[in-house]
User: Fold these one by one.
Assistant:
Number 1:
Amino acid sequence: MSWWPFRRTGLPAGPPNLTEIRHSFERDAHDEEHFPSTIDPRIYHVKLILEHLGPLHSALDVGSGKGRFARVLKEHHPAANIVCFDLALEMLRRVDPNLATCAGSMTALPFASHSFDGVYATESLEHAVDIETAVAEMCRVLKPGGRLVIIDKNAEHWGKLKTPAWERWFHRAELENLLRRHCQTVESRPISYWEDVPPDGLFLAWLATK
Ligand SMILES: C[S@@+](CC[C@H](N)C(=O)[O-])C[C@H]1O[C@@H](n2cnc3c(N)ncnc32)[C@H](O)[C@@H]1O
């Protein structure tokens, strides 16, 4: 289904262009305030990923940016092979050197099927444009029994923040249904940054096991 003709902004209606999206994030990489390279490990988004992925030997951070989540994961699993994957080379240049990096689009992951114990994507699927293919790819590279976490924004709160022309937010059922095509168990729930603060509904987490 096409969604882009209905988007706002001064850009002409038309299919979003991957090169345009990549250039935008190459520029954003210089903005450490809004695209930070570290994260407070007490933030619930981090804790939830650690908890759901559990023990692992390998993990893929899809749309990793500067790998702020992967840094924490590596501290918890020092022997694990953790790969930061992103469209923007300038983001990957800022990833911790103890982590592996790989550039490309999440709609065509350059990894063999069944490669990773854990896969996660935080605030990146919303930029993938071809959401169905990106979800299928994340699930393809996951081992049977492997665990997946997607954290993204709730379509019910669309308009609350300024967004680029290609960005999409999701309804819980929308991603649940896509994930159920590939995974044995799928659930979703609203989450907040801090465990003891009730969620305001802006962020949703989808948790799946293949
Ligand atoms: C808002 S940032 C989030 C970065 C990181 N996950 C975090 O939470 O710090 C979105 C990231 O997704 C990446 N991205 C956008 N489209 C992508 C695609 N098709 N494939 C891979 N990465 C993509 C961008 O380059 C950017 O680094």
Number 2:
Amino acid sequence: MRAGLYYAEHEAFIDSVSKIVDQELTPKVSEWEKAHHFPNEVFTLLGQQGYLGLLISEKYGGVGGDYKLAGAWCETFGELASVGLTVGVNMHSLVISHALDLYGTEAAKAHWLPKAVTGEALCAYAFTEPGAGSDLANIRTTATRRGSSWVINGSKTFITNGARADFILVLTKTDPNAGYGGFTTFLVDTKTKGFKVSKKLDKLGWHASDTAELFFEDVEVDDACVLGKVGEGWKQAASNLNWERLMLTLTSLAGARVCLETARRYSNDRKAFGKPIGEFSDVRGYLLEMERKLLLGEALAHRALDDLTNHRDCRVLVAAAKRMVCDEAVWIADKAIQIHGGYGYTTEFTPERWWRDLRLMPIGGGTSEIMASIISKELARKA
Ligand SMILES: Cc1cc2nc3c(=O)[nH]c(=O)nc-3n(C[C@H](O)[C@H](O)[C@H](O)COP(=O)(O)OP(=O)(O)OC[C@H]3O[C@@H](n4cnc5c(N)ncnc54)[C@H](O)[C@@H]3O)c2cc1C
């Protein structure tokens, strides 16, 4: 596995994750894609082997690993032909539980993290609203003081794991006049009165993943449910989004790599005009271009991962990596379909699923256009 070269120190870990992907999950994943659902037992299976606690402190049952270990996970687990399942798991374990570990109160961490690490309690992150995605500062969900409690009202949409989550980190506005200091994130137990999953969304891809619209009507929570401090929601969101974007980038790299390998194999096996199609210059050219884009993407993404792991500022680098890798992964999946000809368009082969699934990556976690605007703002600042 080529990703293994960069992650040489995690070779044994990569082998064990590959085994789970190949032996436990791949045989069942097409069935789950068709059912538009994967069972919670996937979380418990991964939890039993310690894979849900890679970034979580040992105190709460985690491994206490760094972003590079998490990157090795993303690029290996990401080889599973169900990006929705992969990201559903990664959002739970690498992004949301990790955010709770970084910012949560001791009481919230002690209550939820041990269960999140075993897969007994599942979580979601709710930023996006029907009227505010890229323009996140424009969210309308509010949390207002009532006595010693906070009362949350509003709706969120496109929330991964939204229908199955036991707790959700919800970005709200607590002070509309305080600019970026007016945002606060709350941990909401989904059993709380007033919380409702309004609907599950039907999608082009990510079929096995649940993506939900959520409704909060007078949802009452106490101070222990504030993530960090009141007014810190925006700062936390920016920092978490940076890692979430890199997680999506590394997951896309894995998918692109599988597409290239699948296409390369097919180009050797499939014959036309008496020879393997891989001998035609057009097909060779596609494979060459797929490899070139993958190598460039790997170099950029791994540089960003090095920076993040070593606590260096890498917001612009992550934006550049996400934009490049996520856009090119869709191109690579598209060429994998082309190389498979008519079979590539059927559900009998995986390139069509990879294409549908990877198509979300230039949208989720911040669109390619927003990544470009982060880069151009930095250029303007330097100028
Ligand atoms: C399957 C799925 C899972 C998701 N999971 C989650 C989740 O778990 N939690 C969560 O909070 N959200 C989640 N999202 C939401 C996702 O992050 C948003 O869809 C994304 O941020 C884009 O927001 P939007 O859909 O409102 O698009 P919009 O912001 O309306 O954008 C529409 C178009 O306008 C462009 N655009 C907007 N502003 C600019 C600008 N300034 N410059 C140039 N172009 C611009 C965009 O790039 C895009 O092309 C998920 C979405 C999907 C589809």
Number 3:
Amino acid sequence: MRFLCDAMLGGLAKWLRAAGYDAYYAREGTDVSDRTLVAKALEEGRVLLTSDGGFLERKPVRDGRVGFLKVPHLPLEDQLRLVVEQFGLVRRQSRCMECNGELDVVPRAAVAERVPPGVSGDHERFFRCQDCGRVFWHGSHWQRIDDRLGRVI
Ligand SMILES: [Zn+2]
């Protein structure tokens, strides 16, 4: 299950990625017209998550070729819960919250020069994004995200 979040739902996209789902986020400054987003969702088999009911008037959405869920303005956790319950999502290996890339587990030695010395000593497992190359580890920032995610999915 893959998702496409409209420009209002960037926060939700990041959380879906953290939960392990491929979630494209239509950024401001790129072509985020309804037509473009619907075409992309159709082409890539993505479910449209949008705060804008106007998408329902688009033919591929209307005739059911593009899955669609209207996500109202709610706290992030409640938005995520809505999507989780609607589509029966389960927790998976996280993706890069920044760019949606898949993460590889990499040994400490491979990332030693990319992380602060205190961090590399404290952690065994590191993750590197296949797309943007960012390195992640399960530090306190991740624990907070993980705790909040765990209450929903
Ligand atoms: Zn990335």
